[in-house]
Every structure is written in structure tokens, then in C-alpha cells.
Amino acid sequence: MRTTTDAFHLAIPARDLDEAYEFYVEGLGCKLARRYDDRITLDFFGDQVVCHLSDAWEREPELYPRHFGVTFRERDDWDRLLALVHQRKLCVFAEPSERFADKVEKHSTFVLRDPSNNLLEFKHYDDPRMMY
């Protein structure tokens, strides 16, 4: 079973590694773990994201069915990231909004678009039991 010392791994396409580095490291504040000619490996909020140099990046992204991101347990963390996004003028695909307002799974969300059109959703649920 996974523990807090394990990391989830996700590989995504990147049209340009310098652009990916700028977005993820300089923009979002992720840590660069490794860089090779064909990929960069990142500490993405405690998990591993690898941006692989590829021509197979999405030209016209849609949020569903493919996106990834972080569901924050603490609202302050979500708010801090949103402030950073505005400060660094990162590309917002979907502005902050509230979903399922009248239900127990009510949550706040916003979606970013990286330079290769990968979509990243960041969420916070009012009721932490709804995170999964």
C-alpha cells in the first residue's frame, strides 16, 4: 500500500523542455529533479511528473477526459497557489469557480494550461471527506 514516502508518477508530453521548465519550475515553483535531452523530471507538489519531449502534444485541449492536478486539503494552500498564478501571470484555462454548490461535494477549482496544452486542475473541497 502507498505511504507518504511514495510518489505518484505521471508522464506527459512537452513540445519544448525549456518552456516546460519555465512553467513548472519558475512559474508553479516545482523542483527540478533531473534534466536530460529528451525529458525533465519534476517534484510536482510531492509527486513525480516527467515532461517528455514529444510531437504528440494536444493541439486543442479539452478538460475532459484528460487533466491532472492537486486537490488541496487546506484552503489556504489553494488560495496561495491561486495568488501565485495571478502574480506570475500563468495561463488560466478555466477561471476559479465553485462546483456543486448545494451538495456535500462542493469544491473550488481552477484550471491552468501549460505551454504544451496539458491541463492542470487545482481543487479544494469544503468537506475533506470528499477529496477522494
UniProtKB/TrEMBL annotation:
Residues 6-125 form the VOC domain. PROSITE patterns: VOC. InterPro entries: Glyas_Bleomycin-R_OHBP_Dase (IPR029068), Glyas_Fos-R_dOase_dom (IPR004360), VOC_core (IPR037523). It comes from the Bacteria. This is VOC family protein. The lineage of its organism: Bacteria, Bacillati, Actinomycetota, Actinomycetes, Pseudonocardiales.
